[in-house]
Amino acid sequence: DARVTQTPRHKVTEMGQEVTMRCQPILGHNTVFWYRQTMMQGLELLAYFRNRAPLDDSGMPKDRFSAEMPDATLATLKIQPSEPRDSAVYFCASGLDSNYGYTFGSGTRLTVV
Amino acid sequence: AQKITQTQPGMFVQEKEAVTLDCTYDTSDQSYGLFWYKQPSSGEMIFLIYQGSYDEQNATEGRYSLNFQKARKSANLVISASQLGDSAMYFCAMREYTGTYKYIFGTGTRLKVLA
Predict the structure, then answer these.
(1) Chain A CA closest to residue B98
(2) Which residue positions in chain B have pLDDT lower than 70?
(3) A106–B108: do the CB atoms touch at under 8 Å?
(4) Burial of A34 by CB count in 10 Å (0-12 exposed, 13-18 middle, 19+ buried)?
(5) Which of A56, A97, A102 faces B47 most closely, judged by CB atoms?
C-alpha cells in the first residue's frame, strides 16, 4: 500500500530551537495538508497545498511557523523558534481532493521542553 | 460556531452489537463532502467512509455505513457487528469549498468495544 512518510517520528527539543518536520506524500497526490493534534484543540489545519502551491495557511502562526513544498516529493513544516505550547502531534496528509479521503502519515510527536 | 459537532466524547458498545456515532455539521454550501476517520491508539488516521452532499444513497463500506440526513445536517457513522479492534477514536470531517477546499475535523468520539 502507498504510504505518506513523515520524519522524524518523535522529536524532543529545547525551547528556542528550530524544528523541521518532513513529509513525503504519495506519488501522484496533488494535495498536501499539515495538521496539528493536541488534546485541548483536537485536529487543527495548519497549511494546505495543491500542486505545490500554498492555498491556505491561515491556521498557522506566521511568526514562527513556515510550510513549504520544495518539490512534489517533499513537504516541510518548520518552527523557529519552538515553544513548549508547540508540543503536539503533527500530521501530514496527502490526497486528490476526491471522494476517497486523504491518506495520513504516522505523525511526528513533538515535545518542546 | 462549530462546523463539525461530535457530542459523544466516549461510547461503549458490546462486542457484536451495532453502534452509532453522532456527527452534525454546519455549512451554507450546497456541495460538500463528509468523511469519517478512525484513529487507533497507535495514532495513525485511517479513512473509513465518504458521503457526498448530492449522494442520494447512504454510503456503505463493509461494516461501516453513514446515516446521512441532509435536512438535519447529520452524518452519523454506524458500525455493525462491533469488534474489539474497533476500539479507537473516531473523527467526523467535512470538506467544503470556500474559494479553496477547507477540511475540518470534529473533536472525536472515543469508542470502547467490550468483550
Answers:
(1) A56
(2) 1-2
(3) no
(4) buried
(5) A102
